[in-house]
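Exam prep: given the inputs below (a chain plus fe (ii) ion), describe the expected output before reading on.
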Amino acid sequence: MLSHEENELLTRVGPGTPLGQLMRSYWIPALLSEEIPEADCAPVRVRLLGEDLVGFRDSNGRIGLLGEHCAHRGTSLFFGRNEECGLRCIYHGWKYDVDGNVLETPAEPGASDFRKKLRHTAYPCQEIAGMIFTYMGPRESMPVLPRYEWADLKSEQIFPVKSLLLCNYLQGVEGDFDSSHTSFLHNNNIRNSERLKRDGAPSLDAEDTRYGMRAISIRKFGAAQIYVRTSPYIMPCFSIVPGPPTAKFEEDDLRGFRFWVPIDDRTTWLYILNMRKKPLDDDERKTLRSWIEADYSRVRNLHNDYLIDRELQRTRLFSGIQSVNAAEQDGCATETMGPVYDRSKEHLGYSDKTIVALRKMLLNAVRDLAEGREPPHVIHDPREVDFSRLRSLKGVLPAGTDWHKVMEGLGPNDG
Ligand code: FES
Ligand SMILES: [Fe+2]
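Solution:
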């Protein structure tokens, strides 16, 4: 359990909050490329870390992320005209470029140059793998965006989606670092006798890594085998979870790199960057998107009780919630805690070991930053950015095996 103060420290993301500062030390997703698909298209509202912003793509294809409210008298730039390399406010015609420069103030007398003294809030952006990343911290300490596996994949090998989670990011994040729930919440065939032979109370571990942490779970598979899974937690709020149990990691497994991005204290975007070596076809893409509405809310959500089917719950699904993607079942588990769960009320057991380690790491990172030390995985040296071999691993091994040693042979290392 956390004290009330620690809980506040880890869940409040707005400007000036300690965790907000931590999040602003990294590049984080702001948009999907599909939201602003072409030059001079309509701008979109972006709420990120409690700040209201507007995203747009200018005539040259450059991406801008500006403070939503016009520097003149505050009209929303969401309604602005995206034209001739800038976004123009519809109230008095002030025009901004992607860097926040005020290019024109047409209602001012010709000789006025007071626009040159102004600089509107503008966060730098970079587009990669169908996603637009931004950095919202001080310019002088801007890090580089590490290169993960997806940086080198072709567009046919990736399919990023995003969906709305109606709770604080940490509730989502903790689900990805909690291996023990998978035996229950994601048991989609309660009569599967093979599954029943597996161990529902895995032994757990968490290790500090240079990118953040790694959770390890080891389950008994009958008497002779163990099933090992590793899940990286990548600072500040990214994760990779292993797919369903199979003998070993395969490059051709469909897998997801996940980003839990705080919209504000009470809502979160979950970005899932689906990827696979073999190209994803149109039908697969349709399925991978089918649990998300056009506005990125979820088909099964808090307001419709996740369309729980009690008959299915009795006969087949442990949760009673159908899922295209396990995230729908996770959504029920995490959103129904309330928008910002008060962790001073919880009762932790052994199965929460990795969660405890994760919170400790985050609290340390927040305190480090407050005391002027750089948190983990903030990278400035371009020679250190290669994380392309970072994976979530899994493997069935003979009981008693030293998994650390054997994992190295199961697939790319995990950093
Ligand atoms: S409020 Fe935007 S130009 Fe006046
Ligand atoms: Fe889950």
